Amino acid sequence: MDISIVIVDDNPGSLELLSTALARDGLTIHTASRPSAALDLVRQFRPQLVLTDLVMPEMTGLDVLSRIMEIAPATDVVLMTAHYTTETAVEAIRKGAADYLEKPIRIPVLRERVGRLIDEARRRQEAASDAAAEFEGLIGTSARMGEMFARIRRIAPHYRSALIQGQTGTGKDLVARALHHRSGVKGQYVVLNCSAVVETLFESELFGHVKGAFTGADRDKPGLIEAASDGTLFLDEIGDMPLATQAKLLRALQNQEIQRVGSLQARKVNVRVIAATHRNLRQAVAERHFREDLYYRLAMVEIQVPSLAERREDLPLLIRHFVDRFAQQYGKTIRGVTPRARLVLERHAWPGNVRELENALGHACMMAEGNEVDVADLPASLLADPDPAAANGGAQVGLSGADESDASLAEHERQLVAGALEKAKGNQSQAARALGIGRDALRYKMKKYGLL
Question: H/E element holding 411?
């Protein structure tokens, strides 16, 4: 399947240079010297990628970007300009740009940066056809996850600080690693879990100390910010950082320099900072538990990680992923889960999100003696769901675990699916929402029970 690109630049020489430099098999390139003509090409071909100059007579590149986001929001847009600044790059990313290149563009840089986007577009095409997707260790094909993957790709090359928010167990640490990996920095990825550090040791951990700074400081010790220089510092659960340390962290981020505890000498650093939290930091700011100026410094770009409840259509994919992984880890030939075990997994609310699902399937695969995970292999907490209706959008499910036979469970599931479809008057999306499952999972069950 070919990848389609549109290039728009009012300079004919630039158009020829760009199209020649990017030409390769499996790539169709359309060019336009006017933004209006480029937008017509976007409407006609729905390209995977658009490269646009920032300054043009008819309209600016940002205007072109805004129009493309309305016409074809799945299209990646790369802005090109001779006036690059981090601030304008971040502004463009916020408006939906996939990347921001400085003119004159060196051909190797152009091919590497644009080539990465082309490869991503091809992987998305393959993932859509295979109904599977993995992005930097994150699993999902839902719209929410697709939006997040695109945001990571767009932010990674440019951010200096970023804030990741989401419930516990959603994979905020994987998002942080994806940002670091995609940023292309050469330094280390350094992690500090703010909820695990004693308040009196925070400054020493972050900034380091010199010999004799306090009792027990028998040698000079660099802090984590120094260790992450030219790389990335990940501050997990930033909401648990003491206020006094927050003030010093803010100064370090603003000035890109630190002072070790007990030293008068400032040391320059070059560090990107990613913070993550499950707390509502805006509320923490209002309650004076978190500094407002630090919040805005960290939240220059934000990424919201969806809960499992917000992307239940990814559940079958995640189940298959974890079962395959644990089967290989334990050296077992487990092919999947039984229908009644799948029903238990689908009706659970998953308050602990993907981490809870991973732990449950790790336990189940360890306990499984056959080729499939059955209800008896699942943790007891899943068999005593306190509010099954909540996990099914209001649909009542009478299930008593392993005591019911496969036949009765299958019949009950068939009736449940048929009833939801009848209530939704055949609307599959509405029926899937009522059942608390994804549309793909619903279609699988309809096919299984002859309801298609």
Answer: helix 406-423
pLDDT greater than 50 at residue 89: yes
C-beta atoms surrounding 230 within 10 Å: 12
Place of tokens 């430099």: 21
Alpha-carbon gap, residue 148 to 303, rounded angstroms: 7
Q: How far apart are alpha carbons 60 and 66 in whole angstroms?
A: 10
Pull the structure tokens for residue 414.
């068939």
Q: Are 383 and 401 a contacting pair, CB within 8 Å?
A: yes
Q: Report yes or no on whether pTM surpasses 0.90.
A: no
Instruction: Summarize pLDDT for 104-118 with one digit per residue, the tens.
Output: 889 999 999 999 888
Q: Classify residue 164 by its DSSP letter.
A: E
Alpha helix stretches (DSSP H) within 157-210: 172-183, 202-207
Paired tokens of 56: 């043009």
Give whole-number Cα distances, 156 to 97, 175, 181, 302, 451, in Å: 12, 11, 8, 12, 45
Q: Which of 230, 188, 224 is nearest to 206 (CA)?
A: 224
Handedness of CA 56, 62, 67, 69 (dihedral sign): positive
- Return the half-sphere exposure (C-beta side, CA atoms, 13 A cut-off) of residue 424: 18
∠ CA 161-162-164, nearest 5°, is 155
| 411-451 pLDDT per residue, tens | 666 777 888 888 888 888 777 777 766 666 777 778 777 88
The pLDDT tens digits for 187-245 are 999 999 998 888 888 889 999 988 887 877 788 888 999 999 999 999 999 999 999 99
